[in-house]
Amino acid sequence: MRIVIAEDDALLREGLVLLLRAEGLDVVAVAEDAMGFLDAVDEHKPDTVVVDVRMPPTHTDEGIVAAVAARQRYPDLAVLVLSAHVEQAFATDLLAAGSSRLGYLLKERVGRVDEFMDALHRVADGGTAIDPTVVAQLVSRNVVDNRLDRLSPREHDVLAVMAEGLGNGAIARRLVITEGAVHKHIRSIFAKLGLAPDDSADRRVTAVLRYLDDARRR
Predict the structure, then answer these.
(1) Residue 3: count of CB within 10 angstroms of its CB
(2) How far is Cα of residue 212 from the mean position of the Cα atoms in its chain?
(3) 148 and 54 belong to one structural domain
(4) Where are the 4-aspartylphosphate modifications (predicted)?
(5) What does DSSP say about strands 102-106 and 128-130: parallel, antiparallel, or unpaired?
(6) Domain check: are 47 and 119 in the same one?
(7) What is the pLDDT of residue 39?
(8) DSSP readout, 158-177?
(9) How many domains does the chain contain in total?
(10) Beta strand ranges found along the chain (DSSP E)
(11) Which pTM value belongs to this model?
(12) Is pLDDT above 90 for 142?
């Protein structure tokens, strides 16, 4: 896996380089700002990028803007965004642009090497990884969509873990239920949200985006 890192904090940037190389991954370039990141992506054509949300010069949304721009140039690029704080709007906006090969993690997750590497590989393999803290804050809010109100408490639990990007087996282990039960709950979620099997969009992704977006608006 060839990786470009965009992070303005020198200590974290070098720590990421050491961690990823120790895991046998190829860090082909690092950048301190959004422009340098886009230049590195154009030059090296990486498989995956790790990008800070807030970067110079304003330290607002430069990283997110650059990540979206990179995906527009290279639709197959895997993007893992890092943030110091929970910024729910950034998480849902990033996913709304297309959810495959995308991840959003808090920076504190980097120190939990197994979790960070699992998220990185999941994103690189075409999946989605949303930080559990982001999901937990959304779960704590009231959901305004009437169809989401139809879900049972267990179905809400399943959808919350789905929002982290986990597959059925991992959901079963997290909730201590059988994989068959997870499959049954997901089918029920799709039915209650009106997501037909022949929908052109991925039903799993659509359910998660609706869940995150409606919780954020609340």
Answers:
(1) 24
(2) 12
(3) no
(4) 52
(5) parallel
(6) yes
(7) 96
(8) HHHHHTTT--HHHHHHHHT-
(9) 2
(10) 2-6, 26-31, 48-52, 78-83, 102-106, 128-130
(11) 0.66
(12) no
